[in-house]
Amino acid sequence: MVADTRSMYTVPKLDDYSPAALDQAARELKSALESESAAIAVEAEWKLLRDRCMARKNGVLTQLNDQWLKAAPAPAKRDVGQRVNELKKIVEEQIDAALTRISSASLASRLDSEGIDVTLPGTRRKLGVEHPLIRTMNEIVSVFKAMGYSVAEGPEVETDYYNFESLNFPPNHPARDTQDTLIVAGQQNKALRERLLMRTHTSPVQIRTMERQPPPVRVIVPGKVHRADTADATHSPIFHQVEGLAVDTNITFRDLKGTLDQAAKAMFGASVRTRFYPSFFPFTEPSADMQISCFKCGGSGRLDSGRCGMCKASGWIEILGSGMVDPNVFGFVGYDARKYSGFAFGMGVERISILKYGIDDIQLFYQGDVRFLEQFA
Ligand code: PHE
């Protein structure tokens, strides 16, 4: 910091100690100090001024003492002494005032830069959106909730009993081979039914639900399932299903068809038609896969541009497996199969989401790529 010496006040020697001359000298000192103090903007400048005024050696106050008071002739001493005291006070006040001013100025500038303007909109965090898979899953669930189903869930690490045996897959039954199972290692010493595995479907929650409550049952079960599959554009070792189960007196295959037809219309549009054809699951008898008429080509298999790729020109798209609960399953949960009947169904969420949104690679669901996800915002 270079001080401007031209504007720096120095205490003049006095030859005239008359009151008028003293008044004049005091006024000059006051105004010089006021303007110096007013010019101060930063702390370093303020320190210079303070030191110049207060320094024992040659500071303004010392000079006042030496040059005015000590030098004054005896008769003027009293008057000069009084004035010097007053001037000392003024000098101190000016220094204090300058400090107050710069610190409030720097506070003001700090507030300016750090302050929060509560009238500004604020930093907006982008709202996340529902993942397309979760969205599809929630949509399916709400279709059934609207029909009076309640939501149930079960564990992903499941026992052999719940995943297979109680669903009428006996040990070593070839039907088990249809679900390439990931099993938890190191359980050879346990009974087969207690061995842990990653559930291959949400159907074990059928059993868990029926074990917990007597009929009537209406449950919808969203969840994650696992199969020993190599990941590619159409496969994933982890995927999602929504399971449904209805058990009551007098549940018939017509109820199954009516319910699933209604759900398909709610999910894919009112003009969608459904058809059922025979299938096999150990825990349902009879079993049926459901197809919907292609919502892209309307079931004709043809588009103006040519062959419909959505349904591979067949006009139909398979979306779920279903069937009437096998009486053997009721046997496992202690339901009276002569009194009760029911239907169950299960669908793959990825498949439905892929169909609905025209997604061409199942892996997109799991990669967390914002460029994919933000298309659903
Ligand atoms: N759990 C069967 C599967 O994953 C689907 C299904 C559920 C079939 C319920 C019929 C009844 O393939």
Keywords:
377 residues, 11 strands, binds phenylalanine, rod-shaped
Provide the residue-averaged pLDDT. Answer: 91
Determine the N-to-C terminus distance.
57 Å
Q: What is the H-and-E element order?
A: HHHHHEEHEHEEHEEEEEHEHHH
Q: What share of the residues does DSSP label as strand, in percent?
A: 15-25%
Overall shape: rod-shaped
What is the C-alpha radius of gyration, as a whole number of Å?
45 Å
Describe the protein's architecture and organization.
The protein has a 7-stranded mixed β-sheet with strand order 1-4-5-11-10-7-6, sandwiched between helices. A two-stranded antiparallel ribbon has the order 2-3. A two-stranded antiparallel ribbon has the order 8-9. The chain contains 12 helices and 11 strands. Helices cover 39% and strands 18% of the residues. The model has no long low-confidence stretch (mean pLDDT 91). The chain is an alpha+beta fold and 377 residues long. Bound molecules: phenylalanine (PHE). The site of phenylalanine (PHE) has 11 residues, from β10 and β11.
